[in-house]
Amino acid sequence: MVIKKAAETDLSEVKLLADSLLVDSPSSDQDAGFYCYSLSLDQYKRRLESPLFLVSSQPSVLGGFCLAYDRAFTNRLRGKETTLSDDPVFNFLSDLSGDFVYIDQLAVKGRDKLVGMRTVHGLVRALRSSVDGRVVIGAISHGPWKNERAIRFSAARGGRVIGEVTTLSGITLGMHAFYSS
């Protein structure tokens, strides 16, 4: 497994993987995925500017990705995407004091739990080695669907809930924080 900074050539596979994990109804797999949240290819292209956008590949095949950014990048992104000024997660982040790293999306391909966990651990380990002791924050669905797998993953790394926000579509997201050191 190779973990590297995402490149434009990775984006079609990143988008395909993210779209395959979209949870948009009670019949969707609610244990893992992005709840009513997807990005366009152009939005992924803008996020390539973040040095914390990582991909994992196994001989020329995308295994997963971690889309993360620090406070400065989050602020620049809000300036480029005006809809983010109404986004409750980005508003929560802008109200925080100090620097942070926000994990926007973390995804792995396939249903093989061993390979998937190895990929997730590799991506998170690579991210944590890049964040210089800053708090790492992720938004995890708490309702109406609860992403139990992500909550367990956060808790196993010392994560704690530092707040909750509710999206315009009525989804409650727990803001989970853990320290990189």
Descriptive report:
This protein starts with a strand and ends with a strand. The mean pLDDT is 86. With 181 residues, it is α+β, with helices and mostly antiparallel strands. It contains 6 helices and 9 strands, in the order βαββαββααβαβαββ. A 7-stranded mixed beta sheet has the order 1-4-5-6-7-9-8, with helices on both faces. Helix 5 (113-128) links the parallel strand 6 (100-108) and strand 7.
Give a topology summary.
Elements: E1 2-5, H1 11-20, E2 22-23, E3 34-35, H2 41-47, E4 53-58, E5 61-70, H3 71-80, H4 88-95, E6 100-108, H5 113-128, E7 135-143, H6 148-156, E8 160-166, E9 172-179
Parallel strand pairs: 2-3, 6-7
Antiparallel strand pairs: 1-4, 4-5, 5-6, 7-9, 8-9
List keywords for this structure.
181 residues, alpha+beta, seven-stranded mixed sheet, two-stranded parallel sheet, 9 strands, 33% helix, globular
Strand portion, in percent?
25-35%
Morphology call: globular
Quote the average pLDDT. 86
The H/E string reads EHEEHEEHHEHEHEE
| Biggest sheet character | 7 strands, mixed
SS content category: alpha+beta
Strands of the largest sheet, in order across it?
1-4-5-6-7-9-8
What is the count of DSSP helices, taking H or I runs of 4+ residues?
6
Whole-angstrom Rg: 15 Å
Query: How helix-rich are the residues, as a percent range?
Result: 25-40%
Stretches where pLDDT falls below 50 for ≥5 residues?
none
Terminal-residue CA separation: 23 Å
Instruction: Find the count of extended strands (DSSP E, 2+ residues).
Output: 9
